[in-house]
Amino acid sequence: MSETKVIIMDRDETSRVILKDYLSEIEGVQLAAEFVEYDMAFDYAAKNECIAVIDISDNELKAIEVISELNKVNKSAKIVAISNKTSTETIIKTMRAGAKEFITKPITKTQFSDTVRELSNSPQTNSGDNSCKIISTFSNKGGIGKTSIAVNLAVEIAEMTKEKTALLDLNLQLGDVSTFLDLTPSFDVCYVVNNLANIDNTNITNALTRYKNTSLYVIADPINIEQSKEITAEQIKALIFELKKTFSYIIIDVGTNIDAKTTTALDMSDVILLTAIVNLPAVRNIQRCMNLFKKLNYPQEKIKLVLNRYMENEEIKTSDIEEAVHGKVFWKIPNNYLTMMSAINKGVPVSAVSPDANISVNFRDFASKITDYLITQNIKNNSNSGFVL
After folding, report:
1. Residue 106, preceding bond cis, omega within 30 degrees?
2. What is the DSSP letter of 231?
3. pLDDT tens, position by position, 280-322
4. Which of 150, 179, 341, 343 could cysteine-pair with 253, CB 3.0–4.6 Å?
């Protein structure tokens, strides 16, 4: 078995000596090269399968630029950023650029060794289950726009991150995801779950429908409504587990029925976007959903309240809603009926209709906020240790 190559880019000689000493005690890896300049490290890592340990302390802007470009030209290079700067903003920028891990200085032997071992043992083409984040849109009432939110958010996340993103339609009897994106899928979710055992995880994208020339892949709702009734919660769980092996993000448009299939998807989600519009019945539905989530023992931070079709002059204020449901509003999507209906009728995201419209800008900002949130949650959960995105 060949050894995993590791390169170090660090201008601090003492730091390089320490890292090389740590590496010498890790079985199955070898130091391939060390550099004091970002461009030289890039030239090597761009052409080789390796773990690239890059110190961003001295020139953060240059380092992040190098990491971003390296992530584009060589997906097999696994980047570990190290720095004496620990701000959340720095970590978010670095992870967005393509770093798999971020380790703060001074670096401990255990921390560094565990990081290198984990990355050297994971397949180059697969970032692993822990790296995938699942975002579900949910409401116990139809007609409030959660499908449009799922679709536009998925498109923006795929465009912003350039990572493989799956959009799963679990409105099993009345799904509209493929219609919203004007897709005619060769396979639907029924086919995928029934043939999952025969689909190799490296080829699962072949059973999904790619949206244009993007990193977004769609798993459409069942063509036959009767077949949808035969899908089990166990099959949905197996499907999501399989998708996690390939995709960095999974966005699920969850059905409105409260059953084992729905709760399976919600249980597996990192974030649930509880979607509502601003009126009294909707507020009551939010309260019912909050009570359900409490019974399911979901942590409060898992639930993010999203107000759709929001207008500033609403009779019911945001503060009224927050007081009634005992929770904060996470995001508000403006009411732009003309742009949204044009997008739906054309089968495109709102950004394709009018990229500068308030709702298009809003969805881009929404995608940024939700991905930033997921990164910061990892930071909180892993405090001073390195973490896998």
Report:
1. yes
2. -
3. 998 899 999 999 999 999 999 999 999 999 998 888 899 999 9
4. 150
